[in-house]
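Lecture 7 notes: from sequence to structure.
We start with the chain below.
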Amino acid sequence: MSRQANVERNRLSGVLAPVLTPFDQESEPDFPAFLAHCRWLLDNGAGLAIFGTNSEAASLSTDERIALTDGLIEAGIPADRLMPGTGACSVKDAIRLTRHAVQSGAAGVLMLPPFYFKNVSEEGILSYYAEVIDAVAEPNLAIYLYHIPQLTQVPITLSLIERLLKRYPRAIAGAKDSSGDWANSRAMIENFAEEGFDVFPASEIFLSDALSIGGAGCISATVNINPAAISSLFRALSGDQPSHQTRPLQAQVDEVRRTFQSFELIPAMKSALAHYTGKTTWKIVRPPLTPLSQSAHADLLKKLASLKFEMPVAQ
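Predicted structure tokens for the same chain:
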């Protein structure tokens, strides 16, 4: 079947949040808070890349990820707004998670390469993705390759993308580039966007540049905190608004992003959610992460106040 058929059926774009995972006092996933946060993100224009890095996915078991996905769908969250993270060191776990996501109706899956063994060959990484695709064998499978080499030490190279697209034109849908290297994101877009390969940089800072050359949007941590503004920026840029109209909004979301990046990002975002929702358990992270200190929390709120940042939440 042609690559074009895949492009027409599986197409995600816009602004997605790698959804933060709330925990209760026993460090178990707090599903009511998770559901409320997902609904709030959807209401503010964001899609849901559940179980990404900022979701603490590596600290969640396979069973927990499946149960949380089932809970969202049973509660009425549209499956076609979901891009669950399904990568794992174990190819068997990746197959199980990917099959479950696709059979649940998710629009796509975000898949890390196996990340324990370092300096593995491109052939080995190709074999990993091939084994998942062949085992899942679902016509609606849409994989978004997850490039975050600073954590995995296993890069998604341009040559790997080319080989995967050639072998699996239907299943390989795009990539999230979390390298922070705009030159790499640009190369992904310029080399493969015309083939229907949708590239999402991992920061709204790159949103204007990405959309101008055919990027699909962004999958950004701080969409968890600032979804309405980042979604508004995407819509303005997609509507071909003049740069003098979009530049101030781009600058505003960039400042919020840089503020959170100046702290340990996941604890900082959870600390902000605890403040704005009044739900103190949002501060809880699973080891090896640790919560933001009280002094850092106060500093974060002070910096956000200086930006006149507000986060109206109905959680």
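Points to note: The radius of gyration is 19 Å. The mean pLDDT is 94.
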